[in-house]
Each structure stands twice: as C-alpha cells, then as structure tokens.
Automatic annotation (TrEMBL), chain A:
CDD domains: ABC_Org_Solvent_Resistant. Residues 270-294 are annotated as: Disordered. InterPro entries: AAA+_ATPase, ABC_transporter-like_ATP-bd, ABC_transporter-like_CS, P-loop_NTPase. This is ABC transporter ATP-binding protein. It comes from Streptomyces antnestii. Keywords: ATP-binding, Nucleotide-binding, Transport. The keyword Transport applies. PROSITE patterns: ABC_TRANSPORTER_1, ABC_TRANSPORTER_2. Residues 5-241 form the ABC transporter domain.
From TrEMBL, chain B:
One of its GO terms (cellular component) is ATP-binding cassette (ABC) transporter complex. The keyword Ribonucleoprotein does not apply. The lineage of its organism: Bacteria, Bacillati, Actinomycetota, Actinomycetes, Kitasatosporales. InterPro entries: Permease_MalE. PANTHER family: ABC TRANSPORTER PERMEASE PROTEIN-RELATED (PTHR30188), PROTEIN TRIGALACTOSYLDIACYLGLYCEROL 1, CHLOROPLASTIC (PTHR30188:SF4). This is ABC transporter permease. The chain crosses the membrane at residues 40-64, 140-165, 190-210, 230-251.
Length: 314, 256
C-alpha cells in the first residue's frame, strides 16, 4: 500500500531568488498525481526537496509520520528506501551494465542470494521491456531505454512512493504513450503513490488522479483531474490547452491589461469548445492483461459512464 | 566560485565539514573493500609511471646541485649524505604530493564530477546509499595507501638517480658516496616522509572528492572543479608540508 505525502508551507530559494513559496498539498496514498508548470518553475527542485536532496527554507514534508526536512542524515537514508525516483536521464551508473545497475539497490540493501537477485532483476526488466539488454552499458543505448532502465532500478526495492522527473522529455510521442501506459499499469499492479513532474499536457490530461500547477513562484492549484480540466482559472486553462493567450508569457508573466485583452478575444471560441465537451480527455486505463484493484475498477466504471453520457448528448 | 566575501569562507567550511564526515564514516561497516581495491589499483596505475619518470630528473638535479656545492666547499665526501637527506626529507614527499594531486586527485575529481552532473550521485542518495561511505572513503584510503607506497618508490628512484649522476657523470667516488649515506640521514627521516605522504594522500583525495561532489553546471563545471581541485590541493599540500617539517625538527633530535 502506498504512503501519503503531506507538504505544508514549503518555501525554497537560491540566494535571493525564490523558487516557490508556501506550497501546501497532500499526495493521497496510492494515487497518481501530476505536477505541471512552465519550464523553470522549479518542478525538479520540488521533487528533490521531497526526497530530502535539497533542504527547504521553511515548511515541512511529512512521509509516514516523519518530517523529512528535520531528519538527521542517517535517518533520511532510511526513509529514502521508501522512494523510487526516475531521474530525467535515468541517472544510471555509467560504469555498470544495465543488469548491475538494476541489481545495485538489491546488492547494497538486502542479503538476497545472487540467484534471487537475478530473478527480481529479470522480472523488472521484463516489466519495462528491456529483456535481452542486460549486458549493455548505459552509454550504448537510446534515451528511451535509459529511462526505462532507470524505472526498473527505481522499482526493484518495491517502493511505496515513485517520483518521475519528466518521464516524457526527449522521447517521441509513441514512446511517451507506451511509457504512460506503463505508468498506469504499474499503479494498478503495485499500488504505490505516484508523482509525475512534467510539462507534457497530453500525459497530464490522460494519466493522473490529481493535477497541480506551479506558476509564478507558487502552487496555483492542486486538485482532482476533473476539477482542473474544467477549471476557469486562466493560468490553468492556458497551460492545459497549450495556448499563447493567457498570463504565461515567453520570458515571464505578462502585464494584466494584455492578458485581459487576449482572454476577451478568446472568450467566444473557448466557450464553444467547452460546450462541445472537449475538456474531458478520456482517462488512460490499465491494459487488458492487468488485474485491476478495486480503485481502478471504480475509475473504469466512472469513465465508461461519463463517455456513455457524452455519446448520448451528441 | 562566487566572488562574495563569504564565498571562500563557506567553501573552506564545507570542505572541512566533509573532511570530518569522512573521518567519522571510515569505521562504518560494511567496509567497501571492492571499491577500495579498485580505486587503489586505479590511482596506482595513473601515478606510478609519471612518479618514476619525475623522480629520476629530480634526484639528478639535487645530485648536480649538491655535487658542485660540495666541490666548491671541498666537502666531496659529504655529497652522498647531503643528497640522500635532500631526497628523503623533501624531494620525495613533494614529488609524491605533486603526483598524487596532479594525477590521482584530478582523476578522482573528474570521475566524481561526471557522476554528479549526470545525477548519478543524487540517484545513489535516493537509493539510500551515502556517497561518502560508498565512494569517498574508499578513495581517500586508497589514495593514502598509494601515496605511502609512492613515497617509497620516489625515495629509491631518487637516491639511485642521484648516485648515478654523482658517480658516473660527476666522477664522484662510489665508496665515499655510499659510506656517507647515513652520516646525516636517519631512520626517523623516512618515517616522517611516509607520514607526510599519508597526510598528503588524504588531503588530495578529500579535496578532489569535495570538488567533484559539488561540481555543477554541466561538463564545463567538471572542468572547473578539476582545475580548482588541483590548485587548492597544491596550496594545502605545500602549507601542510611546511608545518609538518617545522614540527618534525622540533620533535626529532637531529644528528651531528
């Protein structure tokens, strides 16, 4: 069973530059959450703060009843065993082949025999579709394979929480679709708490239970997917639709008058589009071979109902 | 490196804090024997040849200088004594320091720096593994062991080189050279040099690890880290050498 992460009043700055301030949210146990935000809003910094790699200026991060911002170094290493983290480029150890990379946490933390390690490693490699690439070095494989190998390594200790740092960056759309399916399947199988940091709107619309949006040095919203997809908040609508019109500008934010003008011009089109029911992207469900736990059964029922209604409306 | 006045102070503080962390982590089990042996082999393989090649001309220069000096003073019979003393006491720890920092330290710093910017170190920490325990301690111990052995190598090669230049090229008398060997030098000189080498090895590896683990800003950051690690290590080693020499003369009574 996954673990709940409770973040309260978190503030982080580098020197005089505030990255984000007063971020409060709760990642519900066992659910998939996505943290969105324009580039450079400190999404990766947020992720690193959650695992205690960076210390926040203020605030707390409570995991399994312990505030990790106040833990001593050796206690932190214990709590981190709850985590699996997929870094942007996989962060594989360049001197080891894929097999040794994935076996690394097992060899360091458990007293399992080599044959048992082999069984677990091959199982995880099968899960991410990397069987047959055991002897390859990280430098010899593509970015997508590195990511999947990083994911296999993150899964090997059966983590309660899995964090994904831009799982879709640098991958082609087809691989992104496969990876999203993999994430959903995994959630149905291992029941851990997932947090995905990304700026890919398509994934954010299909995959998660909850969506959060970081913008202008703060958490604008965090809530259930349905609520955000139908939200009226200009920032949220701009980002989820990937438009130029709205508060988010190329360099920083725009001035208020310009935003108002743009939104007024956009108003009609937007209302029509929303009326046609374009907001609710169908949710990605676990693949056919996966046995769905009750939580996913309920989600699948709700989805089916929603789209039946939509079809009837049309 | 930042230009703020507190920047340098903070850097030295962090470096010192990491040195303490390393000392505190050394006794922690399980000892990373495999990493230690690999690193010792690695540091030795990048330093042995350059060390030998540097110590021959170094011994030769000392022999030449002392050879002409003793001739001017009319004390040729002491040329062996003086050159052994110079090689053993100063030349070999300094050559060891230069090589362990220049060849060993840079290799360690570049290796850890590359891992740092590829997020391997972060990944390791997230997997619940302390990089100080897993990576830095074996490197520091390996560098210390290799420095001690290198110091022995430099002494032997330097003295042999000095003998060759004095006897063969400057027509010194082999008997006088060998007989005066122990008139000034004593066993405690060798011990002092070995202790120096031990400390130099530790300092070089700790500075290199610190700079490597704090590298940032992509490939250029690794280059900068390596550059800074060499400069800082050299400064620290020469200061340490001076202090240790001064203490040695106070503690150990000299011959003659």
């Amino acid at each position: 069973m996954g673990v709940e992460i409770c973040v309260e009043g978190l503030t982080k700055s580098f020197g005089h530059q505030v990255v984000w301030q007063d971020v409060s949210l709760t990642l519900p146990a066992g659910e998939v959450s996505v943290m969105l935000g324009p580039s450079g809003t400190g999404k990766s910094v947020f992720l690193k703060t959650l695992v205690g790699l960076l210390k926040p200026d203020r605030g707390s991060v409570t995991i399994a009843g312990r505030d990790i911002t106040r833990l001593r170094e050796h206690e932190l290493y214990e709590v981190r065993k709850l985590f699996g983290v997929l870094f942007q480029d996989g962060a594989l150890f360049g001197s080891m082949n894929l097999y040794d990379n994935i076996a690394f946490p097992l060899r360091e933390h458990t007293r399992k025999s080599e044959s048992e390690i082999r069984r677990i490693v091959l199982e995880k490699m099968d899960l991410v579709g990397l069987l047959g690439a055991e002897r390859k070095l990280p430098g010899e494989i593509s970015g997508g394979m590195r990511k999947r190998a990083g994911l296999a390594r993150a899964l090997v200790l059966d983590p309660e929480i899995i964090l994904f740092d831009e799982p879709d960056s640098g991958l082609d759309p087809v691989r992104v679709a496969y990876l999203n399916q993999l994430i959903v399947d995994l959630n149905a199988q291992i029941d851990a708490t997932f947090l995905i940091v990304t700026h890919d709107i398509a994934s954010a619309r299909q995959v998660p239970d909850n969506i959060g949006l970081l913008f202008r040095r703060e958490l604008v919203v965090f809530g259930p997917r349905e609520k955000l997809l139908t939200s009226d908040e200009p920032v949220v609508r701009q980002f989820l639709n990937g438009r130029m019109e709205g508060p988010i500008g190329m360099a920083e934010e725009k001035d208020a008058a310009q935003v108002e003008q743009e939104l007024a011009r956009l108003g009609d089109v937007d209302r029509k589009a929303r009326h046609a029911g374009n907001d609710m992207t169908p949710r990605l469900l676990p693949g056919p071979g996966i046995t769905r736990p009750p939580r996913w059964e309920a989600i699948a029922r709700r989805e089916a109902e929603l789209h039946r209604k939509e079809a009837a409306d049309a | 490196m930042s230009l703020s006045p507190t920047g340098a102070l903070r850097q030295s503080g962090n470096l010192f804090a990491m040195a303490l962390d390393v000392i505190r982590t050394v006794p922690r089990r399980p000892f990373q024997a495999r990493e230690f042996i690999q690193q010792a082999w690695f540091v030795a393989s990048v330093t042995i040849l350059p060390t030998a090649l540097v110590s021959i001309p170094f011994g030769a220069v000392i022999a030449l200088q002392i050879g002409s000096l003793t001739r001017q003073l009319g004390a040729q019979s002491f040329s062996g004594a003086a050159s052994v003393l110079a090689v053993l006491r100063e030349a070999s720890p300094i050559v060891t320091a230069l090589l362990i920092a220049g060849a060993g330290g840079t290799a360690i710093c570049a290796d850890l720096g590359a891992r740092k910017i590829r997020e391997e170190i972060d990944a390791m920490q997230v997997l619940g593994i302390d990089p100080i325990h897993r990576l830095v301690v074996p490197r520091v111990l390996a560098s210390m062991v290799v420095a001690v052995l290198l110091n022995g190598l430099v002494s032997v090669v330097g003295v042999a080189g000095g003998y060759f230049f004095n006897v063969v090229l400057q027509n010194g008398t082999p008997g006088a050279y060998l007989a005066s060997f122990t008139t000034l030098a004593q066993l405690s000189d060798l011990w002092a040099a070995e202790i120096k080498a031990l400390v130099f090895g530790a300092i070089a590896a700790i500075v290199a690890s610190y700079k490597g683990l704090t590298a940032k800003g992509g490939p250029k950051g690794v280059g900068d880290a390596v550059n800074q690690s060499v400069v800082i290590t050299f400064m620290l080693l020469f200061v340490t050498n001076f202090v240790m020499t001064a203490v040695y003369f106070q503690v150990v009574p000299q011959r003659g």
